[in-house]
Amino acid sequence: MKKTFTKKYNKLPSEAINRVVKKYKLINDSNISDKIEVIVPEVVSHKEKSVTFECLPVEKMDSLGKHMKEETPVSVEESMEKAGVALAHIHDVLQPEKMVHGDFSPNNIFLLGDSLVVIDFEPMNADNWRGGVYNVPEHDLAHFIVSGETRFPHGNLLNYPLNRSVWYQSFLNGYQEAGGQFNKEDLSIRIREGFRKNAVSVLQDGRRSVLNKVGTIGFRGMTWIANPMLRKGL
Description:
11% strand; alpha+beta; Aminoglycoside 3'-phosphotransferase, Chain: A, domain 2; 8 helices; four-stranded mixed β-sheet
């Protein structure tokens, strides 16, 4: 008997739960793992306020975000490219239904041998970033880059690893090489807006020191806004 895990969505209406279930079902019915080295948990059952998934041993795996933060020997650049390829295939399945992952971040991607395990598809269908359309590829792409810098910032601002820009470019390259397409201008706007919103949120939290605030915003995030040259790869 397979182990299962139940995630509760107490604040979401039933139609939102149905969107979550539909995303997982579309992905698994597409046999995506036969095309690329990606594993997505299967939905076992769902109720009005919860979804039960096949339980994968994520506690025994390291997230991509952890390797980014700790700069461990694992090839982050290669994993970033795989993440881009995975997202392109996910969009290929979901976009005909006008859906995206919704929370595609390094924290929701785990390394299992040569495969990536992708979890936490989100149900939302409204975009508060620009007042525009949420269910477009640019949202997932921007969210991955912004969350990578704001949730896993490099600790030393004076010795920032420039290879991080290479990591993100590998992510975008993998996405495009797998057939993914995006609007460069829209993506750039969403990235800048994501960093701006994070900066405002952090600065409103009076419990943090100034240095912690800067570190959480991320040096790459601040310079991304200030220096267009960092966006030339887009």
